[in-house]
Request: fold
Amino acid sequence: MKAVALYGDRRIDVIDIPVPTPPNGWVLVKSELSGICGTDKAFYTGSYRLFKTPLIPGHEVVGRVISGSEELTGMRVVSEINFPCWSCNYCRSGLYTHCPYKKTLGIDFDGGMAEYFIAPLEALHPFKGSPEKGIFVEPLAAVLRSLSLRPPKPTDEVAVIGTGNIAWLTVQVLKKLYGARVDVIAREGSTKAGEFTGIADNVIYLEDAPRSSYDIVFEAAGDHRAINIAIELARPTGVIHTKSTTGALASVDTTLVVVKELTIIGSRCGTSREFKKAIKLLENDVVETRLDKVYDIDDAREAFEEALNPRYFKISIKP
Reply:
């Protein structure tokens, strides 16, 4: 089968490898579409060190079950990305996404940017929408996970830093599910800032953003330096949600965090609960998605290079 192989430092290839054989309790899935996310881009450029080399990326993936489950065979599914052991203390206490023995799809375990991938049966969720919608289940579940850790109150003033896909999904969730007042904070010259007009309450360029004004700041800039912008924007006792996984170290003004008595919440991918909620929101067209381009797997290098262009929300690869 064809598969995208990442080697880091912009080294990428399309290779021919055997179709994986699922172990007992696992399922073989034929990939239909896989999105390129911020983590994939960081792996590609080399800012985030690969956990295995080569890596078949792809955790924003949708496909159809080929074998391993009579119930799901032929059905379109999306996959959670954490494949835990289910036996350790973390798993037994409900923190299975933090299992120290887990495999993570497209991160340290080969993912969906291939003609086929394998996943445990319990990680798969049926999806009734199109593949073009299905690739947004995982990032939307990640947004829902963040907000489940500290949901906004009705009176909260919220800022979202960034104009990418995570910001796009976050603003909609905040508005449609929580009724929050949301400002998008964009860099001067952002090519996508105008797309948020009518979705957010205001689009404000960074230079004009009011400091110490927001109860909640959601950092979705894809830039490790944005955490300090979030610290500046948050009002005393405010909450910062940070989502960027660039792999780069950030220099953080901890003095200002202490003085302003801020809470910083990191969050990663969604649990089964958030996946089910994301699926429902997408199947019912509650959340609008933005898919800019679909590339054939043979054009993976061009797809990754195009994904680095800040004018796009989402680029995907079709095996």
Observations:
- The first strand starts at residue 2 and ends at 8.
- The two ends are 9 Å apart (CA to CA).
- The mean pLDDT is 96.
